[in-house]
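Input protein
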Amino acid sequence: MIEETDVRIGNMVWYYDYNMIETVFRVEGILEGHVYNSGLPRSKLPLSKVHPVTLEVDHLLQFGFLAGEKEYGEDVHTYSYKYNHNSSIYIRETGEAFQPLASSPAGLVPYGRPLVHLHQLQNLFYDLTREDVFIQ
């Protein structure tokens, strides 16, 4: 289950369809404990039947993140996305989660809570860049 305060329009989530197959969809609306999408049965589902998509490296790549390159002395588990002239978003894969990183004089240091779900990355990305990323 996903909390109403955690999801926003454009987030990718999933539900079990009539054949008990995990079906991913994009949230088109949220109102009174339901999420809406024109492709859903009856165009809506109660939040109790909606689940977050687990974040994977492929999602970072679809957002445009680049993995660090070992030959340049970079950590291959740290992904970066340059979103303006001066700033980048850094995220390190830790095995069980993805930890956002901040630049400091000591190098990249962890900040915030680790990301484990795709909608968390979508929300962070939007908060920092004001861009919605729609992935498949």
Summary: The chain has a mean pLDDT of 90.
